[in-house]
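Subject: sequence -> structure tokens, single chain

Hey, anyone have a minute? Need the predicted structure for the following. Not urgent.
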Amino acid sequence: MGLGRGRRRYTPPAVPQIHPQAFVDPSAELDDSVVVESGAYIGPRCRVGARTVLKRGAQVVQDTTLGSDNVLYPNCVIGGDPQDKGYKAENPGVLIVGDRNVFRENVTIGRSSEYGHGLGKPTRIGSGCFFMTCSHVGHNSVVEDNVVLTNGSAIGGHCRIGANCNLSGFTHVHQFCRLGEFVMIRGSAGVSMHVPPFVIVDTVNSVGGLNRIGIRRSGRFSADDQSQIKEMFRIIYRTGGLLEDRIAHADSSATLPGARMFVDFVRATTLDQPPFRRGMVGPRWRRADKHPAALEIME
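Reply:
Had a minute. Here:
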């Protein structure tokens, strides 16, 4: 029988596109526009947002929330067990991921390891991040928006990576470290200390200068603010005297948002308590006879 005038054509209900050779746990919740390709795996208590794609062999292990428009490439493992000797299966922890992230081949991101002393916060990934092949984010770490982890770079547990940071190939961030916004770490370098916003780390725990191109391209900071950021950097890293005196000097001079961000971060590193008391990365030169401020910054 014909449909007849005024009748609606039947449209089947939208359902996720799940390949027959993929596995989706019955407790998982998938948006109707999710695509799960052959060999992909979505484990228990996972939630996957709109238009997210799991390519062949990608895994979302368990207790993970993925926002919309994420792409998981083959063999990446998201929401796996934390690499922590103190991890207990009865406290599985969680991973929370935002939108529009790309996880390339063999990326690994662990869930949080739940234990006391305020260290049991979820592992969190922001939005618009790009995780290149074989990069890693450890348990309980926070990666803010628009961060790039280049091939082989790794972030330890309980770290915080500020927005718009760029970790070049095979760089490493030690556990309990913080990076401010717009930090760039050059290839094969690494840090075991906190890194203030806007700087370039060129060797281990060593600052080579400001990420001026990144600051300018962001469009967030006026010309006057960029000049203030440069001056705050000079006060902290290029002058002598006690660090607390340099912070006080910078604090009295910083009036614009970017400069205030820099000074507030530096001050916060002096107030941390163990295990977050890591000190702050120093200038490129470290010998006290060449630069008396260098050793004090690193303490």
